[in-house]
């Protein structure tokens, strides 16, 4: 298959590109800087306007859009909020515009999204039929998905609402590892908030499944079927690195340091279940947090 990946040098994207190339697909990566891609075929774009890259998107069998600035890399100033929005909406709209050049109901657009759509829902079980929540993240994700839906006349659209993606070498787990290895790790705030997560290999497999499964369309929760409370995650990570995990990060300190980002991304939670994907045949290789952390850290699960 001819596949174009936006965000192919990122935390999920790089692993996805490796998997697609290994199985024999012809993969091109949309990038602002071709020098960053030594091993893959780059297509230079600015993630806003049309260019020579547009023809490759229009002629692809599948397009995967993972483009977007990281949510949890600092305090949400007004300028940063604007970048979080623009990096997603502009890239998605540019891809949709390229797809309009050659509409094909058999071509797939797999567009990233996030469980932030649901907002802070405490103990409520959430699946793909659940309503949008409140807050900046929920609004951002809603607008992102709306931009992706503009592709529906031109491609088979699959939207994957990712939870926290776990693997070393980047993402949330990499940021948490050092304090846990030093014996200074623990729950965030009260630790009661639900954490909906997915190990990166399963995340990549779900993207692959969405590309290959011609019956897949619409929204799917890309989260493991066993969400955990944050304190349970902390204990599991402590076990995985053989260190204690009882030193909480106080909620008030996180709010002082990170403001709204802490309230919505660190202290809030969602108990999200991947009911559609499981019902339609996707099988998780790593459904439990202990198995996922063992894989991520290169260890054998107990």
State the main characteristics.
two-stranded parallel ribbon, 11 helices, single chain, Rossmann fold, globular, 302 residues, seven-stranded parallel sheet, alpha/beta
Report on this model:
The protein is α/β, with parallel strands linked by helices and 302 residues long. It has a domain at 2-165 and 196-223 and 272-284: NAD(P)-binding Rossmann-like Domain (Rossmann fold, 3-Layer(aba) Sandwich), CATH 3.40.50.720. 38% of the residues lie in helices and 17% in strands. It has 11 helices and 13 strands. It has helices at 13-22, 53-58, 78-99, 136-149, 171-181, 200-212, 230-240, 251-258, 260-266, 275-279, 289-296; strands spanning 2-6, 26-31, 41-44, 62-65, 108-114, 125-126, 156-162, 164-166, 194-195, 197-199, 218-222, 228-229, 271-272. The protein has a 7-stranded parallel sheet, with helices on both faces. It has a two-stranded parallel ribbon with strand order 6-13. Strand 1 (2-6), helix 1 and strand 2 (26-31) form a beta-alpha-beta unit. Helix 1 (13-22) crosses helix 6, helix 3 (78-99) runs parallel beside helix 4 (136-149) and helix 7 (230-240) crosses helix 11 (289-296). The protein starts with a strand and ends in a 6-residue tail after the last helix. The mean pLDDT is 93.
